[in-house]
Write a structure and sequence with these properties.
The protein is an all-beta fold. The protein has no helices and 51 strands. Helices cover 0% and strands 33% of the residues.
């Protein structure tokens, strides 16, 4: 990109050593940053700087972090020997996300004494650290010290003594502190800090390829029967995939499965001469016919009875036969339903199992699957229980798993996962209750829940009948009963301080304060549009807005962006004769003179002999006062008899 689109960062980085000739200060060489795209400058909250021996692809000999405001870690750089060196800088935003980078190579000694300029361009974004806190773009400990952990580890407890104590390759901390890798209906796998599906549970599959929702698809449904996308739908039949394979349950009235072939369903028309009433009844004779009359079983005939219509080898009453409804060959076939024929029109009679007619429209049959979270067993019946992961496969809502620390001990689905495994009644399991000898529920030396006589480290604080670590427990953060809750997000207690762990969808914790939680709506805030620190900007006359997490612009009243060039904003006044009220809308009333001083076209004067009698600017001065009998000489002056001569009634 051209230099005109660059914007120089205002933040000095670090003084670095230079083996320079003629310099009294061996550390006099300085470096600064520029950005290729000015629109990403304001995201910067910190810079990671590195010096590499041998150039940008060389060996790192120095690294440091400098924050625009707040803590940083910038140790003294080493003395640099003559040779080629790479100076690398990566920009981090408010959430410690690396989003721009650049590297410049120079040869030392440097004769001109000029500073090193590193130009930053946008890069693939990734979080720089996995610590629980991010202060001004720098990953920090709870005591304010900067934590620089090796890849795959993090300082999750904020304890300086054990530094980077947590592996980020586990299901509890996958890629970040507290990032739970448990996914529905699957065995999770934390690989390179990313949560993935290792293996799906039986009869479940990951059909959408999205790791976050695990194995989301049951393979016991008609839409995914035994495999993703394998549809179980048989002609003229009700089908089932309850066992993971497509099975024929029953045939629709008037049809039969005579060949035993599953794929063609109930292929036999029991009104046809070849299968008249049953698979084994074939009508003979010169012209074999099968008659089906109301109230009678199908029967072989030589001639169609009165009141019936011959449709190939069938004699039917088209006003009420679902196979020939209103005319030969018009089958009342309803999606996942059974149709009947009344007065020659198809009507939905019944739905197949696990399907419902929730919109009450016969035309689309039984359109709703009744094995989903929103329609479980019946239209509009949700599948949801308190504190539980649920599923609805056979039309019945069941509990698949409980959220952390809870269990379904009463066996009642309606109460969900009602039992707290940290209480004395269910200490670690549904069967374990604490007695007077060990009256509190804590953890044993192996870290497992257990009934104890007294609280011990690490859960050393007794809060009622529980042993809690008030440094990290959200129910008692900093003290017993001090609940840690954050608006629009999930809380995390760190060293007794209530912080934001994660934000709800489209919310952001842009000020880093736990007290107000995720205070920003990322869909509408022009200062944090789509992400914290992403500012919507515009050139002159532009009012920036944030819509749906994307920056959009609108012009202030009276101005327009008529050249579609964002660099000069809303450049065109909309009160001119060329652009009156809108780009390119001219103000030139016919047979008159116009003005656009107030942003809309108005007639100032008319040509001699003409006037604007209808008040419409579009047709200008439309009336010829010299000859118009309804406006002769002046608007509204009607001549009787109707004759106007040179502006006067005559």
């Amino acid at each position: 990109m051209g230099g005109a689109r660059r914007r120089i960062g205002l933040w000095g980085l670090v003084a670095v050593a230079a083996a320079g000739c003629g310099s009294d200060d061996p550390r006099a060489l300085r470096w600064r940053v520029e950005f290729e795209d000015f629109s990403i400058v304001d995201r910067a909250r910190a810079f990671e700087s590195r010096i590499l021996e041998g150039g940008c692809d060389g060996v790192e000999v120095y690294s440091g972090v400098v924050s625009v405001a707040g803590p940083g870690s910038a140790p003294e750089p080493p003395d640099l020997e003559p040779g080629t060196w790479g100076f690398s800088v990566t920009a981090l935003d408010f959430d410690c996300v690396r989003y721009a980078e650049g590297c410049t190579e120079i040869d030392l000694p440097r004769q001109d004494g000029a500073e090193v300029v590193v130009t930053l361009a946008a890069r693939t974004e990734e979080r720089a650290c996995s610590s629980t806190r991010c202060t001004a773009g720098v990953c920090t400990r709870s005591d304010g010290g900067v934590v620089e952990c090796p890849d795959g580890f993090a300082d999750c407890n904020g304890n300086p003594a054990d530094e980077c104590e947590t592996s980020l390759e586990t299901a509890d901390d996958c890629g970040a502190c507290g990032a739970d890798c448990r996914v529905p209906h699957a065995t999770p796998l934390c690989q390179s800090g990313a949560c993935a599906v290792d293996e799906c549970d039986a009869d479940w599959a990951d059909c959408d390829g999205v790791d976050e929702n695990g194995c989301e698809t049951s393979l016991r449904t008609a839409t995914d029967c035994g495999a993703c996308g394998t549809i179980c739908q048989l002609p003229h039949a009700a089908e089932s995939c309850a066992e993971g394979r497509c099975e024929l349950v029953l045939c629709h009235p008037g049809w039969a499965d005579c060949d035993g072939v599953l794929s063609n369903g109930c292929e036999a028309d029991l009104s046809a001469a070849a299968t008249c009433g049953t698979c084994d009844t074939a009508c003979g004779g010169t012209t074999p016919l099968c008659a089906v009359e109301s109230g009678s079983d199908p029967a072989c005939v030589d001639v169609c009875p009165a009141g019936t219509t011959m449709c190939e080898t069938s004699c039917v009453q088209t006003g009420g036969d679902a196979r020939h409804c209103g005319g030969c060959g018009t089958v009342c076939e309803m999606l996942h339903g059974i149709g009947r024929c009344e007065a020659g029109s198809c009507i939905l009679s019944a739905c197949e199992p696990l399907y419902g007619d929730c919109d009450d429209l016969d035309a689309n049959g039984c359109e709703t699957e009744l094995f989903t979270a929103s329609d479980c067993g019946a239209c509009g019946t949700p599948c949801s229980f308190p504190e539980a992961v649920t599923s609805c496969v056979t039309g019945e809502c069941t509990i698949d798993a409980c959220y952390g620390g809870l269990a379904d001990c009463d066996g009642m689905s309606s109460t969900g996962c009602e039992a707290d495994l940290g209480s004395t009644l269910t200490c670690g399991s549904c069967e374990t209750s604490c007695d007077d000898a060990a009256p509190v529920c804590g953890v044993d030396p192996a870290g497992e829940p257990a009934c104890l006589a007294e609280c011990a480290e690490p859960r050393a604080t007794r809060c009622g009948d529980r042993c809690l670590d008030t440094r990290f427990d959200v129910s008692s953060c900093g003290g017993c009963g001090a609940t840690c809750a954050v608006p629009n997000g999930t809380p995390r207690c760190l060293e007794g301080e209530c912080l934001v762990a994660t934000c709800d969808a489209n919310r952001g914790d842009c000020d880093g304060a736990g007290s107000n939680g995720c205070e920003v709506d990322l869909l509408s805030d022009p200062d944090h549009c789509g992400a914290c620190g992403t500012v919507c900007r515009g050139a002159g006359g532009v009012e920036p807005t944030c819509v749906g997490g994307e920056c959009q612009t609108s012009c202030t009243p009276g101005l327009g962006d008529c050249n579609a060039d964002p660099s000069d904003g809303c450049e065109t006044p909309l009160d001119t004769l060329e652009s009156c009220g809108g780009c390119g809308i001219g103000c030139a009333p016919p047979r008159g003179v116009g003005t656009c001083e107030r942003g809309s076209c108005e007639i100032v004067s008319c040509d001699t002999g003409f006037d604007d009698c209808d008040g419409s600017v579009a047709n200008g001065c439309e009336t010829d006062l010299r000859s118009d009998t309804g406006s002769c000489g002046a608007c509204g002056n009607r001549c009787t008899p109707p004759r106007c001569c040179d502006g006067a009634c005559c």
